[in-house]
Structure formats: C-alpha cells, structure tokens
What does this fold into?
Amino acid sequence: MLDADFFRRWLIACAALVDRDAARLTELDSAIGDADHGSNLQRGFTAVAAALEKEPPPTPGAVLTLAGRLLISTVGGASGPLYGTLLRRTGKTLGDAAEVTPARLAEALRAGVTAVAELGGARPGDKTMLDALEPAVEALGSADAPFAAAREAAERGALATVPMRARKGRASYLGERSIGHQDPGAASSALIVGALAEVAAG
Amino acid sequence: MRMLINTPETVVADALRGMAVAHPELRVDVENRVVVRRDAPVAGKVGIVSGGGSGHEPLHGGFVGPGMLTAACPGAVFTSPVPDQMVRAALAADSGEGVLFIVKNYTGDVLNFDMAAELAEEEGVRLAKVLVDDDVAVTDSLFTAGRRGTGATLFVEKIAGAAAEAGAPLEEVAAVARRVNESSRSFGVALSSVTTPAKGTPNFDLPDGELELGIGIHGEPGRERRPMMTSREIADVALTAVVEDRPPTGPVLVLVNGMGATPLLELYGFAAEVGRGLAERGIEAARTLVGNYVTSLDMAGCSVTLCQVDEESLRLWDAPVQTAALRWGR
It folds into this structure.
C-alpha cells in the first residue's frame, strides 16, 4: 500500500531529478522551443518540495492536489497548467483514502492523463508529454513489476518522440524541422515517472 | 554572453523594480508581478488586462496607462504568467463594468488565461477574452497550435483601450478588439538568434550571411533560412506574405517593429522600404509607427504588421494614450 509519505517522497524525488536534469531539458527545449523548460519546472518542483517538507498533507490525494495547485501557481507556460492538472486530477480521483494500492494509483493516473489530453487537445503521436505518459500509465496498470515497467515505457515513449513531427505547442511552428529532436515535455514526463519507480524501489 | 543583469533568476523582478522607480504613475507589485494604473479601477470603465512572458518589452507593462491597458502581468522570460497573477490583475482592474483579457495565441498563455478567467468569474468579475493570432508565417494552422500573436497585440491593446476609455461597455470593447485582430496580419524576420538569461547562449545558430524568415517572438527558429537580403528585399518578402494572406481593401495602420537589437537607423531605413512597397501595391498607410515595441530580447530583426482600419478604429487609434512606451494626445 502507498501512503501520503510515499507520495511526498515521490514529488521530492521529482524535484531532485528535475534539478539534476534542468540543463538537459532546457537544451532540448532550445532545439525546438524557447529554452526554458528546465528552469520553469525547476522553479515549480522546488516550490512543491519546500511546501511538502514544511507541512505534508495527510493523504495521498491531498499531497497530489497541493502539488498540482503549486505547479499551476509557479510554473507558467503550458507545462504549469498541464502538469498541475495531471497531479490535481490524479489527487482528486484518489479522494481522501489514507492508503492506495498501485492498481488504484494506475487508475487515478489514467484519469489525470486523460485530463491533460483534454486540456491540451493533444493525442499520442503529436510529440508531447502524452507520448511518455500514455505508455507509462498503460504499463503501470498491467505489468508484473508495474513501477519499473512504467519507467521503461515512459523512457521509450520519450525517445520515440525524436522522429515525430510536432503538432501541438511551440514546437509545432517548426513543421518538418521539429523532426529529429526529442520533445522536452516527454523527456520531463519520463523523469517524473522515473522518480516514481525510484521511490517504489526504495 | 555578457548581460546587464544581477542573476538570471531575478531578471524580471529587477526590471519591475526599475519600472516602479521610473513610473510613479503605475502601481508595480514586484512580489506578485502585476503592473496596474495607479488610478485603477476607473469608475464606469471596462478594465483591460493583458500579460505574457517577459522578454518582449515594452509589451505589456509599458502599455499600462490611460487609453491602453489597465493592468498587465509579466511571466518569467518567454513563459506565460500564472493564473494567480491574472486574477490579481483582473480584480485590480475591475470597476464593476467587467474586464477584457487580451491573450496572445500560445498554448501556455491560452491555458493560464482560461484558468484565470474561471477563477476571476468565481470572484464576481464579468470577463471577456480576445485571442490575438496575426502571424502569417504559421501557414499550417491545422497541424500547429495555430497562428501566433505578435505585432497586432499593440493595435488590439491600443484600440480596445481607447474604446474602454471612451466608456464603451464590455461586449463592445471585446467586439472592437476582435475586429482589430481579424483585420491584422504580421510577418517577422530574424538577423540574429536570441539569448535567454536562463540559458546564456544563443537559442539557435544563425550563420553569418544568412537570415531566418517567419520567426516568432520567442527565439523559436523560423520556417525558412535564406542568404542575407537587403532591407528593400526583406520589406518585399514581408509585405508580400502579409498582403497575400489578407489583401487590404482600405487604409491600414503600419507597425514597423524592431525585435530588440536592430538600431533605429536601420529600422527607419526599413520603414522607408515598407512605405515604398505599400505605395507600389496601392495600399494607403493611414499611420505608421516605427520602433521596438514587441521585442524578442536581444534578437536583431524586424516585423511588419498591417491592420486595416475604418473611420472608427482610426479615431480610436488617434485617441490620447499615456503609457510608458506609447504616448500622444492629451
């Protein structure tokens, strides 16, 4: 079972991974965007980690909802509302249970990813964060070692964005020239799923 | 890259502190990143709020004042502001007559302003929204996030601001703003890349002797790269793109806009070529504004925006405006 502390540790691990990879995310973003994805997420997850270290909410749902709200209030750009919505919707779906099973988390994340798709109007194959999140949630719901499988699926999904042509977000303005670069949103999504696997492995 | 900054993290806050020093007629909330007319909310008048990523100065904070914006919220460099800022700006601008959000068409701006609109309406603010999407370089709207908001933002903010100042109700101000956007088209050219404070190195590599056509205002590379051209040739490429997309059937406002690092000497020379190109095409330039208004940090280059006007919108354009970056009449 996964309790509030598990989710707190997940988000703090996200902050550490984003911190570590901020320069890489910004570099990816400078190729097909505007060179700020790393620093924007860093600002958001730093705020999330600080809040969760100070006064962690009592339930998994409350941890995720608070983190989502903070991302919306601090990140800006498209990634603020999108990642904020992912965590908020996942948190709200978990309700006020004190502990949740991995299967229940998979269900809730599915709802979160659906909300992201609705908000951004993107589909898998558009070269966005969905290309990492969709396969990750799929793996999380079905595999034997769900967390490790989700990480692997997200990383594979992020790499699979390289040959895609962007149809959403700022990279879409490049048309054919977006081909050959990894989508920075898919890369950061893979990090977030990676943090989940890291915390689950203990 | 040498920059006149303290740290990349404090660039926006430092600039806002500077706005406060230079412009006592504005209320500058550095902590919450909102710039408001000192006399807001103005009784009986619709509030006009805009915002967007920083790095495009004087857009938007430089356009706050009588006759233009009531409030503006700057985001981080090239990053949409967050809903909290927009709600704060809306509440500060609302006299009870409602608030118009002017939103440049970028995924982040649209998402954050939509969230803010919902929150502000819950607080009792009547809201309307206009999207600015004038950049003709984005040709394939079906497979992209749609046309970007660029130079026309200045026309929309000025003319909507004048309508609000004249006492028009929210629905009418919003309709005027939409009409201005629909009547406007832009095209931009980069002669150099752009360097964000966070990254510190140029965002894309533009070799000597080449230029980038169809750029946006965020250092996103354009759609096509060509060998360097003369000012005259650039003016013709830009005008052809704009005019083919929406052939004017009457007089136009002309914005000859610098991207930030192009000297005014060059920009005025370019304005002459734009004037020549318009005359050759039989298009009447009712007014021409030349300067750095919708910029992209340290990018060299320019954009041309044409906005077809009728008598009413020309009168609103000519109406007095008192802001940091645009002021005339009284």
Remarks:
- The CA atoms of residues 35 and 69 of chain A lie 24 Å apart.
